[in-house]
Design brief:
By secondary structure, the protein is α/β, with parallel strands linked by helices. It is built from 7 helices and 9 strands. The chain starts with a strand and ends with a strand.
Amino acid sequence: MGSEQVEVGCHRQTMEEDAQEALDFGDLPDGQLLEGVSGAQPPLRSYQRPAPPPLLLQAQPQQQVDYVFKIVVIGDSAVGKTQLLGRFTRDEFRFDSKSTIGVEFQTRTLSIQNKLVKAQIWDTAGQERYRAVTSAYYRGALGAMLVYDITRRQSFDHAARWVEELRAHADSSMVVMLIGNKADLVGQRAVPAEDAAEFAEEQGLFFSEASALSGENVERAFLRLLEEIYGVVVSRRALEPDERRRSDPRTKGPAAAPLERDRQILRLHRQ
């Protein structure tokens, strides 16, 4: 979408500090998916941490956040959801990480198209016994990261089930990114990138492989998701005046047609 992605801050907040914000997500406007492209990334060959983006700015405490985007990270247990979140929000990888119990969330604030955006990212447990708990947190979510482990075929086979759950509990305009984690484990690959790219194309998802361990493609994937969400929100807000005009019985003349969501424009580049 051509926006410049510049990091302006990275921080965590307590559950108490963000609890009230979580109640307000239902007020954010729904959106329509915009045109975009994504693609499977080549297998990673190194554990080396990639260099940070060239443009970095220090967050200013007095800056006012323009948008708060709720994102859910979903997928089977032990695919690395918490590690991906830790890499994006704190740029760290914990070797002693344990399975998430229930639901946790972290935040990161950054700039998208000169607007300060706070990403509130919910890390949902993948265990079956917590499915009922996590489903309650889809409300108000504008985006989702659907994660599988490239070394565990079953975690990828379950992706279709997670997509069904999203469609049952989330807004139809939610932007979804399919992520194949642990891409550094090339020798243990059980899911060809081509299979995942084909599934993503069929389901209208964005797709990338990434490594929470090395950090490769983690930043890129999250930023792409946030960019697409930003486009959705801005598009919907731009349509609001026209929606009000069409609903006003005093308005004369033909109403403009609403923006229709077309999944077919979300095509993948095969590298």
